[in-house]
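User: Sequence recovery, please. Input:
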């Protein structure tokens, strides 16, 4: 049996443990992962992160997910085609069925908005009504009828990206460590290029980190004879500088991430317009020019990619019995 001094020590340990658990629970309620404090997942964004993780890991090139553009937790159905691994060919094969399913759900949403009971319209209407938590205002359903979007699955593309990541991550992580940046940022090229140094987008973004020419010229050499955007090492150095500058200007890593897509000035404007630095507030309330679906979902895509890439990142960190969080050693300013 412990003496009086021992009981005091035990009581102090129990109090400290209870206090720590309470802090951990409070942080979790705010979407802050104690192991990953720089990149919180606010509850409001959880359906979006879950959606993108499904797109990355469950749905392949032949799967086309019909969902609400603003509420990614609402999925109306999936069109599936086979016999091809080509993205464009799959989209062509799925087009007519996508149009049919979209029209069907637009009709159901319009009828529900007009007051037709879902049980009179069949099981699909009941499912749609339940997804929207009806009874709900007619304008919500009418808006939803115009907001049906289609997302093609990316599982194969992500699998290819993970194979490339295993070769590229050691150098990427070393550069992030040199710049004292969170190791989690190594997951960003999955969103941008699936770790393809030769990737090229319709918008003219090039390379592993998908720099457009105007931004790339601030950090890289881009001429007719030389384009450093295609060099994974130089491009990673440039991305490290850009992300650091975003963080210093915006004061948080979620905003630094979304600024990578929407631009630093664009997010400064968004923050001022909304009157908040909370990523979920900006995503929910800001409707400025060019702040469309891609920008609104960029942080959620990053968090989903981080969940997928994290095991590979950990493979390339120094093994230890007491491995620190990925963010260990981050400079705060």
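Assistant: Recovered sequence (333 residues):
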């Amino acid at each position: 049996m412990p003496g009086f001094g021992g009981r005091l020590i035990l009581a102090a340990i129990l109090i400290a443990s209870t206090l720590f658990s309470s802090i951990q629970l409070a942080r979790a309620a705010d979407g802050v992962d104690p192991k990953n404090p720089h990149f919180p997942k606010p509850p409001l964004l959880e359906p979006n992160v879950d959606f993108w993780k499904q797109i990355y890991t469950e749905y392949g090139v032949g799967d086309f997910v019909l969902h609400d553009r603003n509420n990614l937790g609402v999925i109306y159905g999936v069109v599936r085609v086979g016999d091809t691994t080509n993205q464009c060919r799959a989209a062509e094969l799925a087009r007519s069925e996508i149009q049919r399913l979209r029209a069907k759900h637009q009709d159901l949403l319009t009828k529900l908005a007009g007051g037709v009971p879902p049980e009179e319209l069949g099981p699909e209407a009941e499912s749609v009504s339940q997804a929207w938590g009806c009874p709900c205002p007619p304008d919500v359903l009418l808006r939803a009828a115009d907001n049906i979007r289609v997302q093609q699955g990316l599982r194969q593309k992500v699998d290819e990206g993970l194979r490339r990541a295993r070769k590229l991550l050691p150098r990427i992580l070393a550069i992030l460590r040199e710049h004292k940046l969170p190791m989690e940022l190594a997951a960003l090229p999955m969103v941008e290029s699936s770790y393809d140094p030769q990737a090229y987008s319709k918008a003219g973004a090039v390379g592993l980190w998908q720099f457009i020419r105007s931004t790339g010229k601030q950090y890289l050499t881009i001429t007719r004879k030389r384009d450093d955007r295609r060099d994974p090492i130089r491009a990673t150095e440039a991305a490290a500088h850009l992300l650091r500058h975003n963080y210093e200007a915006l004061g948080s890593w979620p905003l630094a991430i979304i600024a990578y897509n929407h631009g630093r000035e664009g997010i400064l404007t968004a923050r001022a317009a909304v009157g908040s630095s909370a990523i979920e507030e900006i995503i929910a309330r800001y409707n400025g020019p060019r702040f469309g679906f891609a920008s609104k979902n960029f942080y959620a895509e990053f968090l989903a990619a981080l969940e997928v890439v994290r095991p590979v990142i950990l493979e390339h960190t120094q093994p230890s019995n007491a491995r620190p969080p990925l963010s260990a050693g981050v400079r705060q300013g």
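The longest strand covers residues 63-68.
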